[in-house]
């Protein structure tokens, strides 16, 4: 999908973008604030590009989600999808709000434990768990492993038995439900690599219950990410799962738990995602009367709106019929526009720029790829060198997908709460780009 090509309505104005993001405010003299901290102050102290997160937003969204589950009388635990933002401070903050962790690698499991999340509040998902990762999950006595295939079940069974342990597991089912999201982030259709076909689940589930080393706890499902077409896909998936639970129990098989997955979308532009209350209602409709222990795995919904990428203009470049605003942030920092054609709002930090007339501009980075583009023909004021901009709603799949492409060091990360702020990840130094590299003895220095 070409960048911005999916939209036919006019882009939101700068005041409209600002009004929809309560953690941001334009001060007449200090410029754009996150909570009570001027972003220009952070840029002056830390440099750019820098990720900036609102702690208050993280807390309020976690409480809203947990509250919606409680209001719906659902016995559900929340396990934050660590892949969306694996920063230690953010994991610690969400853990303090009552969230566990959904992990997909050894690194994420170790980060969750370092953040103080106990093993019994961690779920391990993912289609390609290694033996080393399974050993660690068993050693940490985590809540459960979500099995994706018969082959993975055989591997884990043999390993757990050899260690004299029984590992709690759930079988991930692919319900063949189209969540109506981007093709690269859909996970619940028949052609996707995730889980086992729902038609094959009863036979495999019965096999799992007979395997040594496994304690079968139930089922898991996850149908995609950034789901914004209402709750209909969730309702369809949870109904199918509820029917499967009843069928398995009719065979005398225990099914005490269901992991309902995540995927609840956010409004980057003018999307209309479902609310936590609507998601809770969909879960209740399909699974709420089966006496199940329930779990959900939110990521983007919790952290996406809480973060931005703060960047500085390098230069404005005029071309025939085009105006390019070139930033010091690039696709190696925020990959979503290049990878998915994703739309992110962009706000100037200066109050003068915020009030100035706008004209179409292509906002791009300095990486040597044409796809290093954040926006096309976006209405923005003149942004001469040195002006600061904030790329909005970048708290999820922003820093976590960053790379050092073009030998660009990873950006710093900052957490804001009220009038205080702190660096929660130092900017990577250039010496770190060379760390670990070696020149063989047979190569003479240049």
Task: Name the descriptors.
446 residues, Lyase, Ornithine Decarboxylase, Chain A, domain 1, TIM Barrel, nine-stranded mixed sheet, eight-stranded parallel barrel, 14 helices, 24% strand, amino-acid biosynthesis, pyridoxal phosphate binding, Diaminopimelate decarboxylase, pyridoxal phosphate, DAP_deCOOHase_LysA
What this model shows, in words?
Keywords: Amino-acid biosynthesis, Decarboxylase, Lyase, Lysine biosynthesis, Pyridoxal phosphate. Residues 70-303 form the Orn/DAP/Arg decarboxylase 2 N-terminal domain. The modification N6-(pyridoxal phosphate)lysine is found at residue 83. The structure is a single chain. It contains 14 helices and 21 strands. The protein has 446 residues and is an alpha/beta fold. The chain folds into two domains: 14-54 and 304-434, Beta Barrel (Lyase, Ornithine Decarboxylase, Chain A, domain 1), CATH 2.40.37.10; 125-298, Alanine racemase (TIM Barrel, Alpha-Beta Barrel), CATH 3.20.20. Strands 4, 14, 15, 16, 17, 18, 19, 20 and 21 form a nine-stranded mixed sheet that branches. The protein has an eight-stranded parallel barrel with strand order 5-6-7-8-9-11-12-13, surrounded by six helices. Helix 4 (88-96) links the parallel strand 5 (76-81) and strand 6 (100-103). Helix 6 (131-139) crosses helix 7 and helix 9 packs parallel to helix 10 (276-287). Residues 179-190 have low confidence and may be disordered.
């Amino acid at each position: 999908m070409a960048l911005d090509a999916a939209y036919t309505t006019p882009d939101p104005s700068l005041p409209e973008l600002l009004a929809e993001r309560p953690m941001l405010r334009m001060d007449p003299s200090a410029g754009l604030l996150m909570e009570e901290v001027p972003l220009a102050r952070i840029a002056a102290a830390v440099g750019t590009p820098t990720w900036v997160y609102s702690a208050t937003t993280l807390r309020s969204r976690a409480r809203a989600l947990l509250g919606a589950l409680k209001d719906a009388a659902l016995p559900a635990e929340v396990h934050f999808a660590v892949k969306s933002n694996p920063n230690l401070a953010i994991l610690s903050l969400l853990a303090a709000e009552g969230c566990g962790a959904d992990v997909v690698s050894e690194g994420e499991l170790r980060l969750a434990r370092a953040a103080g999340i106990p093993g019994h509040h961690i779920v391990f998902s993912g289609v390609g768990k290694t033996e080393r990762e399974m050993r660690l999950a068993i050693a940490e006595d985590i809540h459960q492993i979500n099995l994706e295939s018969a082959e993975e079940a055989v591997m884990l069974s043999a390993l757990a038995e050899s260690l004299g342990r029984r590992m709690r597991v759930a079988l991930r089912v692919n319900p063949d439900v189209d969540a109506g999201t981007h093709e690269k982030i859909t996970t619940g259709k028949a052609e996707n690599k995730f889980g086992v076909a729902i038609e094959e689940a009863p036979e495999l589930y019965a096999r799992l219950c007979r395997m040594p080393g496994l304690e079968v706890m139930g089922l898991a499902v996850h149908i995609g990410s950034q789901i914004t077409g209402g709750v209909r896909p969730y309702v369809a998936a949870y109904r199918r799962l509820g029917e499967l639970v009843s069928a398995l129990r009719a065979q005398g098989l225990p099914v005490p738990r269901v992991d309902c997955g995540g995927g609840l979308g956010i409004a980057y532009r003018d999307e209309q995602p479902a609310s936590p209350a609507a998601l809770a209602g969909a879960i209740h409709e399909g699974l709420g009367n089966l006496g199940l222990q329930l779990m959900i795995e939110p990521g983007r919904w919790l952290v996406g709106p809480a973060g931005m990428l703060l960047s500085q203009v390098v230069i404005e470049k005029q071309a025939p019929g085009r105006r390019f605003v070139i930033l010091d942030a690039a696709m190696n920092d925020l990959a979503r526009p290049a990878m998915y054609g994703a739309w992110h709002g962009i706000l100037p930090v200066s109050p003068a720029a915020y009030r100035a007339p706008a004209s179409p501009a292509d906002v791009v980075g300095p990486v040597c790829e044409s796809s290093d583009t954040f926006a096309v023909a976006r209405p923005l004021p003149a942004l001469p060198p040195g002006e600061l901009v904030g790329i909005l709603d970048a708290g999820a799949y922003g820093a976590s997908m960053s790379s050092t492409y073009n030998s660009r060091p990873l950006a710093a990360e900052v957490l804001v709460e009220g009038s205080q702020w702190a660096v929660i990840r130092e900017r990577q130094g250039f010496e770190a780009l060379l760390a670990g590299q070696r020149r063989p003895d047979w190569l003479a220095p240049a």
